Fold:
Amino acid sequence: MALSRLLPRLQPRPEPLSEPVEEEPAAPVEDSPRLQAVPEPGPAPEPEGALMANVIVFANQKGGVAKTTTTLNLGVALRELGHRVLVIDLDPQGNLTMSQGMNPDAIDRSMFDVLVHRVPISDVIKTVEVDVAVASIDLAGAELALSALIGRERALEKALVEVRDRYDYILIDTPPSLGLLTINAFVAADAVIVPVQCEYLSLRGLVQLENTLAMVRENLNPRVHVQGIVPTMYDGRTLHAREAIEILEEHFGDLVYNTRIRKTVRYAEAPVKGSSVLKYEPSGPAAQAYRDLAKEVVLDGAQARDDA
Structure:
């Protein structure tokens, strides 16, 4: 199944009910047909007229494909364009948190507390180059702790209700697996961007991602879709990398972004300084690549809203 089949159109919201017409006094409460059992409430409804954040998950079952690098640097590039951005570190390794100069081992409260103990997500957001909801090693136990909770797949979705009207983009970095943390991200998301290393084994991870997204869309979140695929670690000098791009474009067509994130040591050097590559080397080609990608993502998001 091609990923392009995983792109459902969002159903239009129902028209709001008109103001009720004043009628005769209601019957006594005990006789009123309006009294009905109601299901357990889910996330609070979106405020009417509020601009809600576009929630984008960065996911790939294979590790080492530049998910964290892409989440952070794209977030900073979107911030440069004037957007309000929150990035969420949902990986127990805490690499995104470390990439902004923070020590995951010295953090009192993190996304673990948000998901498991229902701490407000605003309590774990730190403002650096962008707003970062930080991670700690405690997240490694989150899947086990969540497994005993009712509604465990919706823990992140409910947490984001507090802040969705404060941001234009919420970007979520996920672990290299399709476990409960990643499922939480998919349930909360509007879209998924897949960073794919330009090699054959990385391409095979797209199959498992397709299957998981199909399950989530059928049972938990019908609106989530693949927004795009980002080729990473591209080395145009090698035939293998060029063939990997051809395979991606043959199978996924317009889902493949035009921007190629090329191999460079700058992406490894920047986290050592606790910064994005856009701050580390603002005028370099590595920074420009993510600025180009940010423009594509904004354009894609605008087109998706027009088509919805």
